Amino acid sequence: MLKTNMIMSVIAVAVLVVAAAGTYVILNSDEPEKKGLYKLDATVISVDMGKCSATPAVIVTLEDMYKAYYGDLVRNDLTLADARSDATFWSKYCEWTPIIESNPDGTFDVRVATNAKGTETKNIPVCDTAIILGTMYSETLYYLICTEYGTDVYSDESYSDQNIRDYMNKTVAGGMQYSYFERDNVDYMSNLIDAGSYIDIGVTSVQSLDAERLASALVEAKARTSGNVVYFASGTRISTSEHYNNNTGPCVATGTHYAFFSPSEIKEVFASVECIGLLMGFSEETVYGLIEDIQLRMYKVYYSVQEKTAKRTAEKAYWEGSSGKAVSSAMANVILEFLGFNNSLLDGAEHDVESLLVDRPAFLIFYTNDGRTSGEMMRENN
Fold first, then answer.
1. Rounded to an integer, what distance in angstroms lies between the CA atom of residue 41 and that of residue 362?
2. pLDDT tens digits for 221-244?
3. Three-state SS across the chain?
4. Which of 31, 64, 214, 311 has an alpha carbon within 20 to 30 A of 294's alpha carbon?
């Protein structure tokens, strides 16, 4: 596995110039010749795939990638007022279109989006228990709960706090295959969620979902609470009528609710946080407090990127999935653009060593759950 924030060193070549004699003596170092992508002398980082989607955790990816490539922030004293006064930043990244609207009777109208059916509006009451298929939802709930208790996310304190543990287990009754959390180091889930009571539906994708198993999970979750149950899943992956029926039919049959989102840009992080937070009964203070914290941290990164890149051409970045092909997701493209990089290499295609050495990306990004060795990712034998 690549070490996060690893910066490749340049092979040292000592050149001794003897001006009077007009001769040059070149002393080669003892270091071995670089191979594969190591020849690029690029900055290399591994990032958590779950933190590259439209969740609050995207701020962690932005901060980590910024630090790996640029170093320290230019200014750390900026305020939310500074962010709001920067019209370009605020309009492009922070002004979201809400996907939830409150009703006088205490229910909400939620705009549910799938690739199969487009956008539809569902009337949903406040819910206190969820079945989730996708870490976008569990991670957002974890951030909201930690915000409610004033505890840092991903901290030992959050993992040992019984209030947070109880809140997480009540709110996330079950969903995607539990072994995924352990296999992919989703620490907040493996540390907080009780595997014995978690309702495991055995899959990690809406496309491989068994409708009967989902229905059973919803019935069990409903039996545990006097409140309402909602099923959260990725609308982007619900791309056929069969997927749609498998994911919605069990909810209709069991008298539970569903909400599917298809976020593709940073401002939609805030729409998702707002919708999930209000729908799950969190206070407006908690919901909008979390949103404002992310917005300010984003602005500090944005401001620094603008200062660092103001007088230079954008460097190319190359982001690769475990398949050995460039990623092409909308969020990955937005993240690189936000950080001031040329994202033209994010085309979903396979890029061999020769082409990458010609393109010369200055920043290489891989995922932490990539099963390949560092040498394999860097094409050391090519």
1. 8
2. 999 999 999 999 988 889 999 999
3. CCCCCEECCCCCEEEEEECCCCEEEEEECCCCCCCHHHHHCCEEEEECHHHHCCCCCHHHHHHHHHHHHHCCCCCCCCCHHHHHHCHHHHHHHHCCCCCEEECCCCCEEEEEEECCCEEEEEEECCCCEEEEECHHHHHHHHHHHHHHHCCCCCCHHHHHCHHHHHHHHHHEEEECCHHHHHHCCCHHHHHHCCCCCCEECCCCCHHHCCHHHHHHHHHHHHHCCCCCEEEEEECCCCCCHHHHHHHHHHHHHHCCEEEEECCCCCHHHHHHHHHHHHHCCCCHHHHHHHHHHHHHHHHHHHHHHHHHHCCCCCCEEEEECCCCEECCCHHHHHHHHHCCCECCCCCCCECCHHHHHHHCCCEEEEECCCCCCHHHHCCCCC
4. 311
- Cα(235)–Cα(271) distance, rounded to whole angstroms? 15
Write out the DSSP string of 193-257: S-TTT-EE-S-S-GGG--HHHHHHHHHHHHHT-SS-EEEEEESTT--SHHHHHHHHHHHHHHT-E
pLDDT at 239: 92
For residues 251 and 245, give the distance between their C-alpha atoms in angstroms, rounded to a whole number. Answer: 10
CB contact at 8 A, 164 and 145: yes
Q: Are 341 and 23 in contact (CB under 8 A)?
A: no
pLDDT top residue among 54 and 81:
81
- What 3 state SS string does 142-153 have? HHHHHHHHCCCC
| pLDDT computed for residue 265 by the predictor | 86
Three-state SS letters, 13-43:
EEEEEECCCCEEEEEECCCCCCCHHHHHCCE
Task: Judge whether residue 280 has pLDDT over 90.
Answer: yes
Q: Encode pLDDT of 78-101 as tens digits.
A: 999 999 999 999 999 999 999 999
